């Protein structure tokens, strides 16, 4: 049995969001954002934003390709926050009116490191 | 007009252009035979094939071809038709990998990574089979600045260097080889003519309108309120539009954090961008040909089917492959330096997300254009002065289709 992974203790306040948003692939994070309500995205964004710089500084103490499990969870949460920020700061909507379903395209990362 | 045009750009006039090239079977056959059958086509990057035995298999539908691009044990990158010399089966079915031999699934003839026929099961039952002349059929293959090109003419009339011409001279020192990490967006088959889709990536007029929710205020500023390109320049059939950024774009909180660690075409004013740009300026590096102070990026078309968004900190390639007159395969690659830290990787995620959401806005719109053209309501289309890149593109396509460029 594997132990349940939680966020690093300093970021425990974000734990309620992690189950939904700490997703391993960019496709899953985009799908989550496009299908969430703007209120839910706003709540997630509001919680993460004040801790973002602190969280990046914390993560930067580890090599990108060797993040421990708790840090991986935090990193995935931040990458999801980048998606959430687009909806809140730029589009003011979970998805753009002209955007096709995210099943129309596939995104893959090579040598980009991390999640 | 805010946009300036390089003095040596030929005058292409202002007349409306015919719509037939988007919808006509004869024109498409001309593109297949006289254009895609004759010019150099970017098929891969060297960094995708770092080691001997590395290969990718890529379709080129307009030529009915499956192409193997492989780095041989001798370190040389070559391209081959993915067709077995025995009875024409498709030899390599994987999309990429590393191998010493390509082995045909049908009767297991095998070829090495330099294309030579190595193994024939039951060889003694073949009468007069010459293994030396029955390797994989080579396709002309040359590399410029880590971009691998192929040419379907058995003996291309121009070298790749001659074909790229002044574009290669201009961008020889662009540090593409440093950008060896990438994000790939595979859109697959789209219901549109390849030119409709490509047109959408080489004009800036639509950014304020179609992309008003994604690129708001990014490429316009006080002296350039309509967000025109700053500069247009041609290199034979290839071309560049330079875009400036808005120096006073208000940074939203998360955007500002991201721009501290890395930049992209959509995070034009961040400190990371300015630093990266300063390292490139003034070395014939294929950026900012007009020396614009608030330079953001260049939209450089490598004729006929690649649009390269030339940044100082990223290089994005839209690759637009015709299938038939109303179907197109589209993919793009965003190349970066390998992120060194989680914060840099985070910054890439933010800017890539904005880029991704912007380009997919073009998908449905261009499919609707194709559908609309088929109704036959219109016979021509109009281009304003800053859409000159589209006019230049159609001009050179016509020169190939008519045979004029091949004479
Ligand atoms: S067709 Fe390839 S081995 Fe027979
Ligand atoms: Fe667009």
CATH superfamily of the largest domain in chain B: Naphthalene 1,2-dioxygenase Alpha Subunit, Chain A, domain 1
Number of strands of chain A: 1
Principal-axes geometry of chain A comes out as globular
Show unreliable segments of chain A.
none
Based on CA atoms alone, the radius of gyration of chain A comes out at 14 Å
The overall strand count of chain B is 20
Strand order in the largest sheet of chain B = 1-14-15-16-17-18-19-13
Strand residues, percent of chain B: 25-35%
Structural class of chain B: alpha+beta
Largest sheet of chain B: 8 strands, mixed
Bound molecules: FE2/S2 (inorganic) cluster, fe (ii) ion
The major β-sheet of chain A equals: none
Question: Which H/E pattern describes the elements of chain B?
Answer: EEHHEEEEEEEEEEHHEHEEHHEEEEHEH
Secondary-structure element order of chain A, N to C: HHHHHE
The number of helical segments of chain A is 5
Number of helices of chain B: 9
Strand content of chain A: under 5%
Helix content of chain B: 10-25%
Rg calc of chain B: 22 Å
Q: What best-fitting shape of chain B do the alpha-carbon axes yield?
A: globular
Any key phrases for this structure?
heterodimer, A: 115 residues, mainly alpha, B: 407 residues, alpha+beta, Naphthalene 1,2-dioxygenase Alpha Subunit, Chain A, domain 1, Rieske Iron-sulfur Protein, 2 domains, eight-stranded mixed sheet, seven-stranded antiparallel sheet, 9 helices, 27% strand, binds FE2/S2 (inorganic) cluster, binds fe (ii) ion
